[in-house]
Specification:
46% of the residues lie in helices and 17% in strands. By secondary structure, the protein is an alpha+beta fold. The protein has 2 domains: 141 residues; 107 residues, Transferase(Phosphotransferase), domain 1, CATH 1.10.510. The strands form 3 sheets. The chain has a 7-stranded mixed β-sheet. Strands 8-11 form a two-stranded antiparallel sheet. It has a two-stranded antiparallel sheet with strand order 9-10. Helix 7 packs antiparallel against helix 8 and helix 7 packs parallel to helix 9. The longest helix has 28 residues. It starts with a helix and ends with a helix.
Length: 281
């Protein structure tokens, strides 16, 4: 009897290890983790977006808010909001912790509404600045499917009508291009890239839109001419701030980290930043 129990325990441990291994292999991606947000969604987007969504998308990476996949032709990025982070865990539902559960559910609702609002701001007011082509933030009547391949090589067919996503043009990271220009001593190109960053920050600020995520190292793309803010999950507006104060805060919040980085890594570029701030603040 004891032997059977030990064998059963060993089998359970093996299953757990295999499950954890598959989870790690897929970088945590699962269709259950991107179940659609509950609000109604529209499907009004361009012919380019429609054709792009017919491609197969391969796993690109995972952030705090989304799983990202890149198209076969390398021109587009499809992002799925991680809706599982807004769900109440099973243990919180099962245990007699009502007050804690209600507090957790309220916090999840606030976070979910924030990201919904941020995506909508991006699409409605910053479409060009964020390289957005389409958003689908809820459920619709579509009977089409999205095809994605995860990091383990497994193919998933996701019902478009029941999947929340955003579609963007894919651009190389601005910070990579900037660092490479500095490394090869191309000060002219480095200045162009930095000014492109300032321009997109200024465009967003001029609309009174703030950005909660202060990091700039991975949040901006660059196509060789202009910059794009590729992280679209941190935008918000403040009803408590007059427009001019909101504009200045938006610029300050986005350029303070740039100032810190340049001070440590490329102080010769600081005059360009200071000139921009002198003109705008």
């Amino acid at each position: 009897m004891m032997r059977r129990i030990l064998l059963l325990l060993a089998l359970v441990l093996v299953c757990v290890e295999v499950g954890q291994g598959l989870h790690a292999l897929k970088s945590g991606f699962s269709s259950r983790r991107i179940q659609s947000l509950s609000n109604p969604a529209s499907e009004e987007w361009s012919e380019e977006a429609d054709q792009a969504l017919q491609q197969t998308f391969r796993y690109l990476g995972r952030g705090r808010q989304c799983f990202a996949f890149t198209s076969e032709d390398g021109k587009y990025v499809l992002k799925f909001p991680r809706t599982d982070i807004y769900k109440t865990p099973f243990w919180a539902k099962a245990l007699p912790v009502r007050a804690y559960r209600e507090k957790l559910e309220a916090e999840h609702k606030i976070r979910e509404q924030f990201i919904l609002t941020s995506f909508q701001i991006a699409f409605q007011e910053l479409k060009e600045q964020t390289a957005l082509l389409a958003i689908h933030l809820g459920q619709s009547s579509s009977n089409r499917f999205l095809t994605v391949i995860d990091s383990a090589g497994c193919k998933h067919r996701l019902p478009l009508g029941a999947t929340s996503f955003v579609l963007q043009h894919k651009h190389p990271l601005l910070m990579k291009a900037f660092s490479e220009a500095l490394t090869r001593g191309d000060e002219h190109e480095a200045k162009n890239i930095l000014n492109a960053l300032f321009a997109v920050i200024d465009e967003r600020a001029s609309l009174g839109i703030l950005n909660r995520d202060r990091s700039f190292l991975k949040n901006y793309g660059y196509d060789g001419t202009r910059a794009y803010q590729i992280d679209v999950g941190s935008f918000f507006k403040s009803a408590d701030l007059p427009f001019e104060r909101a504009r200045e805060k938006s610029i300050r919040d986005s350029t303070d980290p740039v100032d810190e980085w340049l001070t440590q890594n490329a102080p010769e570029m600081l005059p360009d930043l200071h000139t921009f701030l002198f003109k705008k603040l």
